[in-house]
Each structure stands twice: as structure tokens, then as C-alpha cells.
Design goal:
The complex is a heterodimer of chains A (114) and B (239). With 114 residues, chain A is of the alpha/beta class. Chain A is built from five helices and five strands. Chain B has one domain: Metal-dependent hydrolases (TIM Barrel). Chain B is globular. Classes of the chains: A alpha/beta (114), B alpha/beta (239). Chains A and B meet through helix 2 and helix 3 of A and helix 5 and helix 6 of B.
Chain lengths: 114, 239
Amino acid sequence: MKIQELETLLDGRWEHETNGETEIAAGFTSDLLSDVMGNAPEDSVLVTIQAHKNTIAVATLAGIVALVICSNRPIPEDMLAAAKQEGVAVLVTQHNQFEATGRIYARLQATREG
Amino acid sequence: MAVRADLHLHSCVSPCGQLECSPRSVAETARARGIELVALTDHNTALNCPAFAEVCAELGLGAVFGIEITTTEEVHALGLFETVEQALELGRRLWEHLPDIAFDPEKFGDQVYVDADETILGEVERFLLSAVDLGLEDCGRLVQELDGLFVPAHIDRSAYSIWSQLGFLPPFAYDGLEITRPHGPIDTAGFTTITSSDAHFLADIGRRYTVLPGDEPSFRALRSALLTGDTKLSFSPTG
């Protein structure tokens, strides 16, 4: 699936958009950044409520291309600045981690089978 | 000449702290174990600091007043101050960022604050272990704006630490880092380290402590030792 599909899929809004044609290869859901750093696959989308600057740093290290911030958590200014600098897409959704993960998982499976 | 300091202690206002950990009992126990400088650092509140100040003055113990903040990353970090008023001010500012989740004493234990004679003055109605909606660095700036020392707590522990929550040390002008063992999993990047008991029970007070140079058990001596890197860490109890 492509990054740009996340917006409709999750009824979300972009806080920072990158190239929407970028392919998402996998997903990872966690609110422990040490877990994300150790286990998130390359070219993945991260589903989390950890809306702060250090999430961007971890995303960059782990090769995450997009972040989905759940439950409408506000994005601090310094996080947005870091996202722009590092080129990580950030989408905010009203849905919680369970709902967002389920929707992304189903879409990724459909992409693979299709 | 040296000062033994235990700079991370909880009292009965911390939900996980025992009711018997009144500021008086905490200070008396610390003194009995040869600790000369103590810091009270309850979770997200300084409401037991006024009583702690009174008791420490009475016992001739050096006192530092603080709060153990739960940042939005669920990292624990100490804000340490020279005066009760600074610690209370940090507490008031954190309160605005603490989620309004009602506290259930049945599940978590009590959150009572008391006076120097152990009379209960009140109970905190929000759950104090919750994370504030401020990131680590924002919490650091808040503490340092109030002229306090910002020291991330037990950074090498497997829960509520920089290591467990983030996995790396974000760049910041930390005043120091608290560790719990000599060769932990995370690089302290040249910052001055301290160690403390993080006691939630009287029995644990002084199980780890930091030795500061000089003979003055004070906040100033602490600040100066953190600046110069002149701390010695003891990972076994006082004799």
C-alpha cells in the first residue's frame, strides 16, 4: 500500500506529508520506543500514541516511513519540526491503536494477495 | 570529609509508597543509616515537602526538595530544588498537565499528605503515577527554569526509564543521571552520575547512595558536585 492511502483508511489528517507514492511494506504497533527500535521492520508504518520528538528519532533509526498518532493526540511543535527535517510522514487519527492497526493490517493483507 | 546523600526517596503521598513512610519516618530512618543529605521525590507532587523540611531541620539533616516526574514517554525523571516553594511550584505546573484520572486507593494504595507530626492533611484526588503530557525535554526545561536540577531517574532499569522507554539518551543538558548499577546497558555520555535508593519502603532507605565531596550536606554542595563530576557511588547499604 502507499502512504497516501492512510488518510482515508484511518479518517485521519496529515500533520506532515511526504511523498504519498512511497510504498509501505509492513506495520508495527507499540508505545515503547525501545521496542520499536529493536523490532520494527524497515519501510513500515508505526501506530502509536507517543506524540513527541523522540518518536521521530526512533522512526528514523528504525527505517519507519510514516507515523500514525492515535486518539487525536496533539503533535508538539518540536516533533513536527523533527518530522519535516527527517522526512517522516505524520498522520493523526481519532481511532485508537487497535482500530488503526486492524484497518492497516487488512489493507496490507489485501495488497499482498491482490 | 564526605557527605552521604540519598536523593530519591518516596513518602506516603506516592501511591506505591507505604502509609508508614511519613516524612518524619523517612527522615529518621535515613539519619539512623548514616545518610546526611536526603531528597524527597514523590511521584508528580511535592505536597509532603513542607513536613519533610520541618522534620529535617529538627533532625539536623540536609534536605533537598523534589518531584519524580512521569514524562509523557513514561520516563521517570527527578527535579531537585533548594527550597520547598520551588518544588511546590513545579508540582502546581505539573498538575495542569496531569490527566484527570480519579484515584482508586483500593487498587493502588493511599495518596495522603501529612504534617510533621504525621497528621493527615488531605488526599490527592488524581492518580499521581499517570504521565503528564510533556515530553522529557519539556520537563527538563520546566525544572531548570525554576532553577532546579534535572536528573532522569534509574536510567538503566527495565521499567519507566530512558533505557526501557526510549532505548537511547536524547540530547539534553541534563544536570546528572541516576543509575542503579555499575555497568548498565546505557551509555551515560559523560554526564555526572548519582545513585539512590528509590525507597518506597523504610527498609530500602540508604540501600544505594551517593557520596559528595566536602562536609556541607546541602543543595549547593549537590549542584557543585554534579557540575564538577565529583560523585562517588555506593551500590551497597551503609554500614
